[in-house]
Amino acid sequence: MKLQLEGKTAVVAAASKGLGRAIAERLAEEGCRLLMCSSDGEAIRSAAEDIRRKYGVEAEGEAVDLADKEQIAAWIERIRSRTDHIDALVCNAGGPPSGRFLELDDEQWEQAIRLNLLSVVRLLRGFYPLMKARGARVVAIASTSVKVPIPGLVLSNALRTGVNGLIKTLSQEWGPDGILLNTVCPGRIMTDRLDELDRAAAQREGKTVEEIRAQHMAQIPLGRYGEPHELADLSVFLLSPRNTYLTGSTFLVDGGMVKAL
């Protein structure tokens, strides 16, 4: 299937590695021009260089702390000075720390809110004029915790659900503008973030990482962790002009792990 993305402009947040990088790679493979950011300037510039070399597309990477209002605003303004529209936007950010409710203080909550909820608000608000110009597609990366809360991840459980509610609301408000927005929720996809969570669980429970992973895989009907490209393939379709009628939906990429309807 041709996704009709050649020559389109896509903005991908948190794209130096993991899910953001996988989505950026698939967009580049389809011929997209990429405008990417990451909190790690060296890593995102390296990622952009790799993508340019591998796919022969224009790719730019900039250091942006998505928890910082001023840095987001400056990045958006730089993009607005160079282009009058964007065709696709990926709202993505690193996950907040693990922990139970009584273990977390106000500072940790406020940091997580800035990174995982307000970053999405600010990206959407800032890029709205460029998306409205010709219609656009938005994917927000959340978590299966929007359906079933994950023990020990209260920050993620609360804020990813907030993102999902925001995307659903904007699908109603921005539909007349031709902007389609969806939430994509990874289950246990093998990334650095998941490795970190598995190691934290192993330490907390006095088990090996292998034992923790075996426990989780036993709950997944497909019997394995997912790969980033498996989430990226769905995301890129949702971001493409071939998606003409999917908006306001929540897609779980979890190998059947979540049993909720």
Amount of helix: 40-55%
CATH architecture assignment name of the largest domain:
3-Layer(aba) Sandwich
Poorly predicted ranges (pLDDT <50, ≥5 residues)? none
Q: How much is the average pLDDT?
A: 97
Rg from alpha-carbon coordinates: 18 Å
Distance between the termini: 29 Å
**β-strand number:** 7
Q: Quick one: CATH class of the largest domain?
A: Alpha Beta
- What is the CATH superfamily of the largest domain? NAD(P)-binding Rossmann-like Domain
Question: Can you tell me the number of structural domains?
Answer: 2
Strand percent estimate: 5-15%
* Coarse structural class: alpha/beta
CATH topology of the largest domain: Rossmann fold
